[in-house]
Amino acid sequence: MHNGARYLIFFQYIGTKYSGVVKVPPQQMVKKGVQDHIEEAIQKLKPVNSASLSVSSRTDTGVHALSNSAHFDLQRRNNKPPFAEDLLVEALNYHLQTEQIRINQAHRVADDFHARYRAQSRTYVYRVALGVRHRTLLPLTESNLCWDIQDTELDVEAMREAAAVLIGTHDFSSFRAVNSDMTFKNPVKTLDVASIQLGNSFASTYFHRQVSFLELTFTSRSFLYKQVRRMTGALVAVGRGLLTVSQLRDLLEAKDNLAYPQNLVAPAHGLFLTQVAYRESDLPLRQALCTDNFKD
Predict the structure, then answer these.
(1) Which residues of 236-255 are buried (b: 16+ CB within 10 A; e: fewer)?
(2) Domains and CATH numbers, the chain
(3) Which residues have a catalytic role annotated?
(4) Report field, pTM of the whole predicted structure over 0.90
């Protein structure tokens, strides 16, 4: 590409407003995906080429991200040099305006770099608020950002024992939901991390009452469709005494998505994609801030 550049961007969003992260076909569009808005922002930079974003990690409607990633190519008009990374971040955020989407960082990468296939791991955190009789008892900073349940406590040690069953390389067919890609995706995944820790409210210092939180963290190179939400739902069921550790092990070994109990799937709004990791060699040093005018 003449005077063009490929960029990797890291970005965050509150998923409640969007129809997932990936582009929504016009005939299906009730509300746009995050990708639609970022591509519109790129297009406002008036590139020679049409904006086309390749997202590393697909998230569903209602799921949030603190750090998703994607790559795209950009060729500027009139033989202008490629944007410096810091200026590109500023420009895209300027054009995203009031959307609940922010570009965190940009890296100039090799022309053959691919955000999805070069990713070494993905980490998700699921947040559970305990002892919430009604959603109005949560601080506003937690609205649609956690799964609020009435239980005042869960058996965390049993949950950790059950989480240990999931760690390692397994056929996770029982923990995936049906979708159009199901027949093409290998259900065998390696789960590197499945941990359960105490968490905090975003407003814990200022809210008038204490709300207890648990954070369930999962790391793998890749996940199946709704795998994290299904694993979370099963682990919370163990914490509630609705499933035993032995029953969760049997569910994993069943290798059958129909074996997953109904009504256990954790809701989308408690889930955050928190990290997409790459090799350092794929992310060269970022360029210094450029004073070029991105509004031209």
Answers:
(1) bbbbeeebebeebeebbeee
(2) 4-117 (3.30.70.580), 121-275 (3.30.70.660)
(3) 60
(4) yes
